[in-house]
Amino acid sequence: MASTLEQQSGTPVTRQHVSQPVSSQRLHNEDLIHYHQALRDTDLFNNCLHGLSNTSFHHAEGTDTILYRLASDDMQKHVNMLDGLALFLIFRGRDKKDQSVVATGMIRAAGTVNIVYANNSSRPSSLEQRVYIYDLIEKFKDQDPVDDILKHIIPFCKEKMAQRCKNLAAKFNMNSTTLREDVSNFYGVRSDIAEHAEMETTLRDLNWIQKTTSLSKALDTFLRFAAKLTRLSTIEDIFNVLYLAYAFTTITPGIEKLVEPPIWRRMRKIGDYRKTCICVRDVVRTLGGSRATITIEQLFPPDEVQHEVHNSTLEALNTWSKVFPSNSPLHDFESQIKEHYPNAKEGQSGKMKILFSQHCELTVAKHLLQVKTTRSLLDPIEIGCSKASCFWCDLYLTELNRILPGGAITSATHGNLCDGWMMPQALPSYETVNRGVLDYIGRQVEIVFARGNDRRRKSDSLPLDRRALPQDDKMQKEKSERAIV
Where is this region: Disordered (predicted)? Predict the structure, then answer.
């Protein structure tokens, strides 16, 4: 019987990897490397993914994707609106993995709009949640006041809203019990800077803050209110925080210059709840308001599957040396892996179970791609997501963009290697996407082995010749350049 990953690739596999070692020349010749043939084995794939994820050699804050940066202003606004729509459909916090992340897409045809959404679980929304979504659409069609629409959303999404507010406050070392009342002006506002004074005047003139409240005090108050929010907070308390976040991130351009990009991104996400209400209501009005035909459909990924892998990073990665015996196994975590990947996790000996799931943005991407096959492939696939995509999802979409004329666009990626990532089953004519991902994973495992064994062979007193090895950053750059060709 074919393995899961064989089924995903769409082509049968002839297994020769254990009995016939691959030569060193083959392993280090880019034109000859085809690791996907070995990585179609489910057990090998799971262990390599787990091992690489534990090395965490791609770890960063969220950043805009290349295609998003190159997109037109209108396209960026549309993707941002889809990101915001995803926020309206999150009904759980971080501890509920199945509904803590949502992706969205939109299909327009013959005067109708079909909104699709997915999370990482195949569990359908509850009846109460479906009624909420239906009522939300009706409120947009009836052109209800923005604030009323937002107050309809808060009771269903307050858990995630409170979590986002807490995450922002935590960036300033603030939480519900430590509000840092003895500290002021967290954002570093200065009254002697004309731009700061202008922002303060604008907020006062538009009645977003009181006439006697300074910009620095308003920002401090906002942070402390955000830190205190919980899922038990009143609708009014949450509304006020969302209201202020919208004012700071939309009404007064320039505040983003006061903080680091990760802080600004978190703050903008909070303000996006109200901003998205405005954008969606405007779009519905152009479609005819109450006469508009709008449908919403939940997409379902394959069922989550629990797989057993080696807990130890060394043992998980060493499954690779059984397939390619020309690579001697790694033996020492500290000197062979930790040397090059300081954030790597050692793990305990033995086995552990990990739940593998297909991430929501790839579920939406596959659905939109299937719809596009009957329409123009030149149109871009625009995908909204409630949080930045992981490294593996971004890699998959980058490989897809190499052959998809219009491209598939998400707004951001956080670059982290998520454990338990399930690769989608290959669509007809798109098998090269899956093969490209598997080959990349194989190359990264090769890098870990090359660095580890090179370190072991050399004396500790000799410097490591990093130029002789392929660099992750260089591979990332080349991969990004391919995406925009």
Answer: 1-24, 457-485
